[in-house]
Design brief:
With about 475 residues, the protein is an all-alpha fold. The protein has 19 helices and two strands.
Amino acid sequence: MPSQGAIIAVLAAAGLCSSFMFTLMVPIQSKLPELLDASREDTAWVVTSTLLAAAVITPISGRLGDMYGKRRIVLVLTAVMVVGSVIAALSPGIIGIIVGRTLQGAIVGVVPLGISIMRDVLHEDRVDSAIAFMSATLGVGGALGLPISALVTERSDWHVLFWMAAALGVVVFALVLWIVPVSVLRTAGRFDYVGAVGLALGLIGILLAISRGGDWGWGSPAVLACGLGGLAVLLVWGWYELRIDAPLLDLRVAARPAVLLTNIASVAMGFSLFASNVVYPQLLELPAATGVGFGLSLLVASLIVMPSGLVMMVLSPVAGRIATRTGPKLLLLLGAVSLIAAYGFTLLFSSEVWHILVANILIGAGIGFGYASMPMLIMRSVPQSETGASNGLNALFRSLGTSTAAAVVGAVLAASAVDVGGVAVPSSAGFTLSLVLGLAAAGLALVVGLFIPTRAAGERHPSLPQ
């Protein structure tokens, strides 16, 4: 039997691999139309496709993990990511890149599955700290991946990024197969294929409306059809799920106050996190002549942002100890307060680079505590047979928050753009409004968090070593 430390390390590596997929394209996103000889609207699908795939696959893979074995599904998702990376690496045109990026999005499902594996196979004294460590990889992978991606794209062919992703996936696959044990829990019943298709169609419609609304026009027929159509499909899907014996997601469990309020807080915290990911890099990289930027290169800017992820990693054992002693609700509240402090500080002080550095450190503390708390709150409130699906649903709500932030903050900055030397750049007022929106989202997470019940589920963990 591998040591519990080794199991935690391998699952954390899988989490790092997952978060790296979302920073992979950041250094070259603005150059994709030139690199792929395609329009900007078409190249936007290189990012949108990964987002859609991740949102759809995460809750579905959670249910598959509960039914057929979580480690098995982690291996499948990792293998799909490797295949997607190879396809993208070998593709000179946009179609192959979009297909590859879509398959890469599958890896996002390993984080909620990894957290559920930890509950199944670790001693209960180590579960909270392990979950905090796993949650920290969501920020660390991005923080480390951004400067690495920037360095590679500056020194080599950009397709090397996909070969790096494939190699990382192969290593993770081998380590999971070697180190991570098979958990003994299984959920009986048949897989709900109708529910999976309905959830996928509904989510794709809503996320398309959110992510492409700025390009297509928020009142355009395409956006309204996608958004309203997706919402209608999800309403019918919910009605169906409540009437079958083995649903894809048990909505009665999802409606428990602790689960429901945690998921609502997840949307708000996801919004607050991604608003900072949009605002701070632009502040650092815009030319100083614009009056709002510092004119830093992508590599230097990424090094200023990177400490947020490192703070998440450093604070993960602290988060585990706090959760063990006082419960995870306090972690969520501390995270929201730290995010409020970050945005408040930036609204007051943003004239020096070190101001942005301090704000990013506070963002790292906020997300480190907040993201660590969410799976702990969920798993204290659901049956052990539902951990994979419930964690997948929580990850989906976080994704809805980040997707909404990308669309809303992007629209705010675009609407506020002013002409500087013949180039449209976001204005100071646009950045201020974006920071206020991030602050408001963090405040909402704090208020919702205050109402989350603290009573533990009181359930024994039959798969935990005694």
